[in-house]
Amino acid sequence: MSSTPVTTWSLEQTSPADLLPAAAPDGDVRIVRAEVPSPEFSRFLYASVGGDIRWTDRLGWTYARWQEFLERPGVETWVAYDHGTPAGYVELEPQDEGAVEIVYFGLIPAFRGRRIGGHLLAYGTARAWDLAERWPGRTPTKRVWLHTCSKDGEFAMDNYQRRGFKLFDTKVELEPDVAAPGPWPGAYPA
User: Fold this and answer.
1) pLDDT-derived band of residue 179, with 50, 70 and 90 as boundaries?
2) Hey, how many other C-beta atoms are within 10 angstroms of the C-beta on 39?
3) Can you give the pLDDT at residue 35?
4) Which range is the signal sequence, renumbered to this chain (predicted)?
5) For 133-155, what is each residue's pLDDT tens digit?
6) For the chain, what is the domain count?
7) Residue 70 — left, alpha, or beta (φ > 0 → left; ψ -120 to 50 → alpha)?
C-alpha cells in the first residue's frame, strides 16, 4: 500500500476575545445542539461530512463505542440545519485544565460554499467557550483548540484563522492512501 505525507496543523484560542465572528449566511440556517446522545445520528454526520475527505478513524467504531463517547459529560454536538436539513456539525470535547477540543467540524459537501461554515465554526467556538455554563462542576474554558490537516477542505485553514485561531504546532507524517469512503460505499469518486 502506498503512503502520502499529511501535514497536521494545531490551532488554538486562549481567550474568548480571540474569537472573530462570521457573517450569518442567507436563508433559514439554524444551529441546534443534539442533546440526546444518538450513535446513529452522530455516525451519519461523521460519514456525511468526512466521507469525501477521508475521515476513516471512527468508521469502525461499534454502536457501544459511539454511545460511550457521546455520553461523556460535556461532549456536545451542534448541528447546522439549512431549511430543516442537516448541513454540518461541530463536536466539542472538554479536556483537563479547562481545555475544549473541537474534535470534528465540517459541512456535508452539498452545503459547502454557502457561507454556512464560518458561521457554524464561530457559533461552535462560542459554545466551547461557554461549555462550563451548561455542565455544572466543569472547569471554565481557558483554551479552545483543534487540528486540521492537508486532507481537509481547501478553505479549512483560512476559516479557522478568520475565526481567530492561531497556529501552535505543525507535524508531517506518512499515512496510508485510502479511498474516500463517502457516507456509504461509492458515494464519491476515489
Assistant:
1) confident
2) 18
3) 97
4) none
5) 999 999 999 999 999 999 888 88
6) 1
7) alpha
Q: Residue 106 falls within a domain, yes or no?
A: yes
Q: What is the pLDDT of residue 108?
A: 95
Domain harbouring 12, CATH code: 3.40.630.30
Q: How many CA atoms lie within 13 A of 24 on its CB side?
A: 8
Q: Which residue range is the domain that position 89 belongs to?
A: 1-174
Q: What is the pLDDT of residues 99-133, one digit of tens each?
A: 999 999 999 999 999 999 999 999 999 999 999 99
Residue 45 vs residue 2, higher pLDDT? 45
Rg (the chain; Cα; Å) = 16
Q: How many residues does the chain have?
A: 190
Q: Sheet containing 143-149: which strands, arranged edge to edge? A: 29-33, 76-82, 85-94, 99-107, 143-149, 3-13, 166-176
Is residue 11 situated within a structural domain?
yes
Structural domain includes residue 190: no
